[in-house]
Amino acid sequence: MTASRAKVAVLISGRGSNMTALVEAARAADCPYEVALVLSNKAEAEGLTLAAEAGIATLAIPSKPYGADREAHERAVDAALREAGIEVVALAGYMRILTPFLVEAWAGRMINIHPSLLPKYPGLDTHRRAIEAGDAEAGCTVHLVTVGVDEGPIVDQARVPIEAGDTPETLAARVLIAEHQLYPAALAKLVAG
C-alpha cells in the first residue's frame, strides 16, 4: 500500500451507482486512491445518502440558484474541491456540460465514464443509437475530460456484445455492469500514472 493515496472527489447528479463502485474499490488496501468527497449539483441526489452512509464527506452545491451562469456554479464547485484537498475528479453521472473554466482548472486530473465505445456515440441516447446502427457491440469508455463533450483522450474501454432482441434498457443494464468494473480500474490506472 502506498503511504499516501490520491484524494478523489466524485461528482454525481443522481443515484451514484458508479460512485458506489469507486467507493467499494477504494476499500482495497492496494487501491491508489481514496474517495474523499462526493459532491452533487442536486441536494436530493440519492448518491449523497449512499456516500454519507459509507462515511464519506458529502456536499451539495445546487446549480439552480446560479441560473444560466454555469461558470459561477463551477467556481463554487472548484473552491469546494480545493478546500477539500482534492487531487483528482471523477465524474459519475454528473449531468452537466462543463464550461472551459472547470475543465481547464482540472485538466489531466478529471475523468468521466461514458456509456459507449467512444468516439462512437458521444452525448445521450447511446444504447438506442448503437442498436439502430446494427452494431455488434457496445460498451463504455473512461476518458479525460476536455472542453469538447466526450472528446477527451481515452483512458480505457470495456466492450459488451449487443444481443439479438436487445432494447436500449437491456443493453444499458449490461453496460452498467461493465462500467462498475471498468471505472475503478481506469481511475486507479490514471492515479498510479
UniProtKB/TrEMBL annotation:
EC number: 2.1.2.2
Reaction(s) the record says it catalyses: N(1)-(5-phospho-beta-D-ribosyl)glycinamide + (6R)-10-formyltetrahydrofolate = N(2)-formyl-N(1)-(5-phospho-beta-D-ribosyl)glycinamide + (6S)-5,6,7,8-tetrahydrofolate + H(+)
Residues involved in (6R)-10-formyltetrahydrofolate binding: R70, M95, R96, I97, L98, N112
Active-site residues, as the UniProt record annotates them: H114
One GO MF term: phosphoribosylglycinamide formyltransferase activity
Gene3D superfamilies assigned to the protein according to its UniProt record, in alphabetical order: Formyl transferase, N-terminal domain
Protein name (Swiss-Prot/TrEMBL): Phosphoribosylglycinamide formyltransferase
Gene expressing this chain: purN
